[in-house]
Write a structure and sequence with these properties.
This protein is flat. The longest helix is centred in the middle third of the chain and has 19 residues. By secondary structure, it is an alpha+beta fold. 5% of the residues are buried. The two termini are 23 Å apart. A 3-stranded antiparallel β-sheet has the order 1-2-3, with no helix packed on it.
């Protein structure tokens, strides 16, 4: 399983086989993103000093007109920390000049169970959504 904390835009690089162990004097957006990611390790450690978060899921729901079916996470302290981590990382990347795009104003963590190919896929009408 994975958790997407944010999305960002990096324009295509002119040199896709660049050695990222050193950075030149005029870094590309990819250079900046890699450097910012490396610098962000301490932010992750601050939010989860005892290791990875433990998340539990309860109930099924959907969004995007039923196109995405997901399990909803239970609200726990680790769940809250994941949301705070997402906010901090978005702030860090934005302040580094990285185009953080495609993110909702409010972080909505979930466990995607299925994504349908068509918005009009009739399978959605057969999936019961639960709201505990």
């Amino acid at each position: 399983m994975h958790i997407t904390l944010m999305t960002l835009y990096l324009p295509p690089s002119l040199n896709s086989e660049k050695d990222y162990s050193t950075f030149n004097s005029s870094p590309t957006p990819t250079d900046l993103a890699i450097q910012t990611l490396l610098e962000s390790a301490n932010i992750v450690q601050e939010h989860f000093p005892n290791g990875p978060p433990a998340l539990a899921f309860t109930g099924v729901d959907n969004f995007d007109n039923g196109r995405v079916v997901f399990a909803k996470p239970s609200v726990t302290e680790d769940f809250k920390q994941v949301g705070k981590l997402a906010v901090r990382l978005i702030e860090k990347f934005t302040s580094s000049g990285i185009a953080v795009v495609g993110n909702r104003k409010t972080f909505v963590p979930h466990c995607t169970l299925m994504v349908t190919i068509s918005y009009n896929d009739p399978i959605i009408s057969f999936i019961p959504c639960t709201h505990p």
